[in-house]
From TrEMBL:
Name listed for the protein in its UniProt record: VWA domain-containing protein
Keywords of the record: Membrane, Transmembrane, Transmembrane helix
Keyword Protease: no
Region listing for Disordered, in residue ranges: 429-460
UniProt-listed SUPFAM superfamilies: SMAD/FHA domain, vWA-like
Taxonomic classification: Bacteria, Bacillati, Bacillota, Clostridia, Lachnospirales
Positions of the FHA domain: 498-547
Membrane-spanning residues: 404-424
Pfam families the UniProt entry points to: FHA, VWA
Comp. bias (Basic and acidic residues): 431-445
Domain VWFA positions: 85-262
InterPro entries noted in UniProt: FHA_dom, SMAD_FHA_dom_sf, VWF_A, vWFA_dom_sf
Amino acid sequence: MEMRWRNRLAVCFLILAVGIFMVPVYGADIVVIEQAKVNMPKIRLYVHDTENKMLSKDDVEAYLGQELLETEKVSRFDKDREGSRYVFLMDISSSVPSGTFEQMKKELKSFQRKMGKGDRWTLMTFGEKVTTVFQDQKASDQVSDKIDRLKGKDDRTLLFEALKQAAQDIDADSGQRNIFVVLTDGEDFSGGEASKAEALDVLEKKSVSLYAQGIENGDAKNRANRKALGEFARETGGEYRDFPSLEDLKDYLDEFQIVELAGSSNKITFQKETLSVNFKQEKKQVQKEVYLTRYQKAGEKAKISKAEKTGDKEIRIYYNQSMTGADEPDHFRILYQGKHPAEVLKAKYAEKDGDYYSTLQMKDSIYQGEYTIDCSDVVSDSMEKTEPEELTVRLKGKNYVVHHYGPIFLLAAVLTGGGVFAVFRTRKKKREEPETAEEKPREPENLEAVQEETTKPGGNKVAVREHLEAGHHPEIMLKVYADDRIAARISAEIDSSLMVGRNQNSDLYFDDPTMSRQQFVLFEKGEEIWIRNLSKTNPTQCNGRIIEGEIPLRNGDVLCAGSTIIKCEMKERTV
């Protein structure tokens, strides 16, 4: 009796084990990511939930590397709206049993009857060579005739060569979903592991998933080939199952959902990156390696959207997109009322709640009036790296005149008031006291002699004029060369500073596309004229050497700014 129970128990375990191994491979995981079509900043996922649960935006949390992506939309795959492009690769080698080969042709013809309006399909065969039977077709009787004429008789099998060629022909930039289906026993004579690695690399770069339909021919080696084929298919994001099942495969593929993600920038690295997706409802994380090789052009150029005063000595500048180089104080040139430079001591860049901004700590207080904000080497964090145009805004703050000249006005008012009061007291006193003969005002004895003395050369008038002329600014002659000859001579007076660059708001600007918008600045320092390089992307050179920081200019120095050559000649000061 005890033996019977043992035997029955053993039979139950055997049935359970067989049942486990007979479960289809499709649906083995709860959530499967078939494809990740990357066209930065957009990423589209094709996701399958084996329990047919509809995902929601809140259920999906995705990261590209360390960056949190925005989940924009989740929808069911609609074959009539979008459609798919199917590429079938059929093994026509003699190792495929003849009965199975005929069944493959029958399954292909039945598959096209389930195709949607937007679906297209291509059929390629591989044996001794790779051949395209038809390409990018809808379902039709002509296609069925071509399938009927296929023969399985070749001695060699170029499996991975066929996959490689088919993947290279795929347009990865199209909006369609690309699906490869291979019908084979897994045997390959196309060059071993190198060809397998090459085929996998192209499939991954083109975001193509492979669905393998393994064919059993009774050979012991066939089992190993089919196992390796299954591993290869799963590496691409596809699946493996034993043939025939093309109609079941079509039903499975139509059950997928589309998850649309968005990054903050269209920047790509041309390398493989890790995409991590958390499905919160299923408590499942899926990772997929994706290639960042395609991007969409930025919808708009970088610009400064607004600026506002955020402190007594603080300005916040907002951009319309993510920026780089926006945390360096030297990258900002700010003018008050178009002529008074405002020095930036510190710059801090941040991205928060969809805003992109730089907070600038100024040396002086913010005054009421117009501020012109210009950037140099501040560019969009995108493939285009566009530089924002300058912005003029009106800010609220202290009154500039009162702040700078208020004490002087107050002192002048006090002195004026005191003087008026003293004159008033003197006149009042004189009116009260009797007038004597000695106190009467006397007329000058010779009025003409006095007038002649005040206007002759060397008098006060000439001395005052010379004093005013002694404080003029240094001058410099800039000779601009083109084709080894002087194209222009520019005489400039250095009034505090002289900005030179491509920007038309510079004091001296050139129509030179290789020159930065703010290339360099000339300024007075003591009795000398100095130059400071402002461009990091294309530094200014003096006598063939890159200017590091600022240096004094000498008579005859030759400057190279972009593709413009400038020779400097100092003018002697005259007193």
